[in-house]
Amino acid sequence: MLAEAADWLRRRSSSAADWPAEPLLGLKGSTRVSVVLPARDEQDTVGGIVSAIRRDLVERTPLVDEIVVIDSRSVDDTAAVAAAAGAKVFGQDAILPRLPCLSGKGEALWKSLAVTSGDIVVFVDADLVNFSPSFVTGLLGPLLTCPEVSYVKACYDRPYNGPEESFAGGGRVTELVARPLLNLHWPLLAGIVQPLGGEYAGRRSLLERLPFMTGYGVELGLLLDALEAVGLDGMAQVDLGAREHSHQSTEALAVMAAQILQTAWSRLDRRGLMMPLSSPSPALTQFHRGPSGHEPVDRDAGVAERPPMIEVPEYALTLGPAGERARGAGRGHSRD
Ligand SMILES: O=c1ccn([C@@H]2O[C@H](COP(=O)(O)OP(=O)(O)O)[C@@H](O)[C@H]2O)c(=O)[nH]1
Ligand SMILES: O=C(O)[C@@H](COP(=O)(O)O)O[C@H]1O[C@H](CO)[C@@H](O)[C@H](O)[C@H]1O
């Protein structure tokens, strides 16, 4: 990991426990806070999340000024369940009706900016099964206490088969696509433990100036563009413990991976980097949960390239005048 990334990881990391709600309320002042949940067919989970935020962070400790659910073309009762729990619900396609309707999570998140008023916007997925209001207070902590920070990402263990499993199970596209991509092309972001995590927060003054990828590329796109806009020091990361959510099939995640690769491609192309990398970094930084939190583990992912065999003199010598391989050429030493 680059020394700059490791230094950032030390300086800009905290945990949800560092940001209890009451002290944050004293720091909120006139800052308005919106919590946004993008929800497509999340009737089973959206109500519990909204209710928990409303109970703890609107009624008990009024840190949150509005809870907005963007109904992303649900065909179940997501909208009714979210409204009954106390959220303001907007249909994704009804927002900014002059514009052509696009699909995907990023479209829902982008349009949420048009129907919210918070100076700070907190994004929370609506399919979480172990949500805690500390997810919201944790993300608000750095933004309410550090004016230099404009974008905060959550990190967490991501068990795949229930709370008892190690965090390594979930985040399949993170581990197989996003993390290698970031380490290769954006090593400054190698300290982001969960680059694709759906829980993050930003100042509106930043978010309204960033493009949003419409599908599942939204998290990667925002991360890359936030780095460009505010620099690594304008970002922070908060450990929220563990995050469990409903999982898509591998087949569905292939579509997500393709959208994420398109997003990376577009940013590389925009920076004129779509040419052979002069010195790609062979390092891949992964993270293991240790006594002091997510501990970086550097792995060597270096690859080299062998030339066409025909160009290897020892091989070329074994070829006949017509370029054919002499019978028995290259066979190992026979035992007999
Ligand atoms: O077109 C979409 C796709 C997803 N989502 C929401 O975005 C969040 C994350 O999506 P999903 O659960 O499909 O992704 P995963 O967590 O499996 O990576 C969830 O609240 C979804 O309901 C959405 O609002 N619109
Ligand atoms: O991190 C990941 O690899 C994917 C899939 O997670 P799982 O393998 O189903 O635990 O989940 C995330 O990716 C999406 C794309 O950025 C986000 O929109 C989701 O909120 C997030 O859960």
UniProtKB/TrEMBL annotation:
Q: Which InterPro entries match?
A: Glyco_trans_2-like, Glycosyltransferase_2, Nucleotide-diphossugar_trans
Q: Which UniProt keywords apply?
A: Glycosyltransferase, Magnesium, Transferase
Into which family does the record put it?
A: Belongs to the glycosyltransferase 2 family.
Which residues does the UniProt record annotate as the domain Glycosyltransferase 2-like?
34-145
Report the domain of life of the source organism: Bacteria
Q: Which Gene3D superfamilies match?
A: Spore Coat Polysaccharide Biosynthesis Protein SpsA, Chain A
Q: What is its EC number?
A: 2.4.1.266
**Pfam families attached to this UniProt entry:** Glycos_transf_2
Q: Does the keyword Protease apply?
A: no
Q: What residue spans carry the region label Disordered? A: 283-302, 314-336
Catalyses which reaction(s): (2R)-3-phosphoglycerate + UDP-alpha-D-glucose = (2R)-2-O-(alpha-D-glucopyranosyl)-3-phospho-glycerate + UDP + H(+); an NDP-alpha-D-glucose + (2R)-3-phosphoglycerate = (2R)-2-O-(alpha-D-glucopyranosyl)-3-phospho-glycerate + a ribonucleoside 5'-diphosphate + H(+)
Q: Does the keyword 4Fe-4S apply?
A: no
> What is the required cofactor set for this protein?
Mn(2+); Mg(2+)
Please state what the protein is called.
Glucosyl-3-phosphoglycerate synthase
